[in-house]
Structure formats: C-alpha cells, structure tokens
Design a protein that fits this description.
By secondary structure, the protein is an alpha/beta fold. About 25% of the residues lie in helices and about 30% in strands. It has two domains: about 1-50, no CATH class; about 55-215, Sandwich (Immunoglobulin-like), CATH 2.60.40. Bound molecules: copper (II) ion (CU).
C-alpha cells in the first residue's frame, strides 16, 4: 500500500465513479434506470482523513502465514485501553491486521501481559478446539500459548478477539481485537489492481476504525 492516508472525499469520489460506471454497463433500453446512490451529497462532511492501515503501526498489515508471529496482549495508553502489540521485520504493530494466505500454516504465540486471563478466538475461521480460543485454554497473566493451525477458509476479512468466559466484552470493548485478512490469488490480484484505494479492505477497516476511535465515548463493562 503506497498511501497511508486517503481522504474520505477522495474515496467517495472514487465510489461515485464506480457507481456511475456500473449503471452505464447495466443500462437496458426501455427500462427505467434506478437512481444512482448519492454518495457525495454532503460535501465538506468528511474532512477527516481516513486511516488506511499500512505496513506497520496501528492495524498495519502483518504477513503472518508460514512464519512465527508473537502477539502481546497488554495495556495501551490510558483509560484502561488494551491492545495486541507485535514486532516483525523491524516494525512495531498495534492490533495488527494478520495477513495470511488461504491454505497457509499459522504459528502465533500469544503472550498475556494483562492482570487477568485471556485467550484469542479467531472469529470466522474454521478451527480445531485446541486453537479456537473457546475458553478451555485460558492463558494466565505472564503466561503464553502457542496457536498453530492451517487456514482453511477462503479469502475474506475475519477478526480476532479475546474470549475468556465472562470477560470477553470487557476486554474486547477496551480495544483488544484486530483483523485477519485471508488472501488467495484473486484477492492478491485485486489488491494489486486497486493499489491506491484498496476499496475491499477499506470498508471492513472503516467499521473497525470507527469503533476504535469512538470506543472511549461508550462505557465498557467493568
Ligand atoms: Cu467472535
């Protein structure tokens, strides 16, 4: 990804162009064309640049297939916020987006630096019980667990989050979650073709970024 920041207005312009192109291609004589979605009806309303995760930092894309990765669940900043921290290829990551190929093997060590048990659940991925993070394999404070599994799912966005019984909401609400981008050949080609805008990933990211940004305005379970 070449541009870490893409303005929302620019994104919406691209979307509008995309919608217009689709409408023309699908036009049938004699059939009333449906109104195109009004995506740019509120000029000036999206001045805040949208963070598009890059190759490091917050939600950065961390290649996690076929090599060991260490995630550390720990406090992050103030107000009780939590995060998964990682370091790879000389870069620091916060809540990294784990990029794995469909069919690849994954080996992730989760170190628990919280003052309570945690466990990682790989939401949406087909998983065996030992690795599923269903609460049977709780990781105590200052302990770790080695997850090892093969990605059997097709290309899509998934996510990972804690799943300790009774503490799932409390830990997740404080920011302890991240994305898993499962890729296949088609997805890689699509990303290469879109390069600058990276729209498919962007929509999933937008929801997550908004949640992360607004998190402190909502009370988390104690
Ligand atoms: Cu889940």
């Amino acid at each position: 990804m070449t541009h870490p920041l893409i303005g929302r207005r620019r994104l919406l312009r691209a979307l509008a162009a995309l919608g217009a192109g689709t409408a023309v291609a699908g036009f049938t004589p004699g059939v009333r064309k449906a109104a195109a979605p009004v995506l740019c009806a509120t000029p000036g309303a999206f001045d805040t640049p949208l963070l598009v995760p890059g190759s490091g930092g917050r939600m950065g894309r961390l290649p996690a297939g076929g090599r060991p990765v260490v995630l550390r669940a720990a406090s992050y900043g103030r107000d009780g916020a939590l995060a998964f921290a990682a370091r790879a290829d000389g870069r620091d990551y916060i809540d990294p987006t784990l990029v794995v190929g469909s069919g690849s093997s994954v080996a992730i060590r989760l170190e628990n630096r919280l003052d309570e048990p945690t466990v990682a659940h790989w939401h949406g991925l087909t998983m065996d019980t030992a690795n599923d993070g269903n609460g049977e394999a709780l990781i105590g404070p200052d302990s770790s667990f080695d997850y090892a599994f093969t990605v059997r799912n097709r290309a899509s966005l998934y996510w990972y989050h804690p799943h300790p019984h009774g503490r799932t909401a409390a830990q997740t609400c404080r920011g302890l979650f991240g994305l898993i981008a499962v890729e296949d050949d088609d997805e890689v080609k699509l990303r290469a073709a879109l390069s600058e805008c990276d729209l498919p990933s962007l929509f999933g990211m937008m929801m997550f970024m908004q949640y992360k940004t607004d998190r402190t305005s909502r009370p988390c379970p104690p």
